[in-house]
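Pipeline run #58 for the internal structure catalog. This entry was flagged by the ingest filter as a single-chain record with no existing model, so it goes straight to prediction. Upstream metadata was stripped on purpose; only the residue string is passed forward. Reviewer on rotation: M.T. Logging verbosity set to normal.
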Amino acid sequence: MTQLATPALFNFPPQAKVGRVLPKNKIYQHGRVGAALRERFVRQVEQITWQYKLAPETINLPARGGIAEIEIFDIALKTDTLDEDVLRAIDRAIPLPIVFQLQHGQRTRMVAAHKRPSAAEAGKWVIDGYFAGAWQLAAAERRALPIALDLHNLYEQLLRSLLPQAPRPGESLAEQVERLTRLRSRQNECSKMEARLHKEKQFNRKVALNAQLRELKTEVDHLSA
């Protein structure tokens, strides 16, 4: 889960309030939750609340681009960490875009993945990697929702607020998410390669690993530029 340095918390309109507790067993039934993942739900999640529904009838924005409504889910945590697989199970169970507000102690953070209707299979959704805002005090001042012409645009702006870099000129949200996902993957590879290089004793292997590391760093620089 990639974390953003600048917090992103929004003030959702009261007319969109739902405030309904979502039983975990509903997620288990529809989110393909096995025994190991269910144990993580029990260990990490105190309560899931469907907090807000951003829809044409609640915030007077038209649906567009496959986005009929946006759900805001609050997750009260037992610990300050939450496995990404738990969020993915919830996203799989609910066939609508979701923005999560994680809560632990007196702190809150926003987390979401780019979730979009599948172009290959009707009724299915594609869920990309998760991006997270920094933890901040739950009582901190929240900013107003971004100005948008429709729900699709609002969803894009909510997601972009969580991304660790600004988009390149003309870069779509899907392109930006793909680039940042590749960047995260290459950065992880760099870290592993550096650890291997540090442990390697054979000169020839160190030379080969150094060459691979330079290539990875070049790609990281390109993706982050």
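catalog note: The mean pLDDT is 91.
catalog note: The radius of gyration is 20 Å.
status: ready for reviewer M.T.
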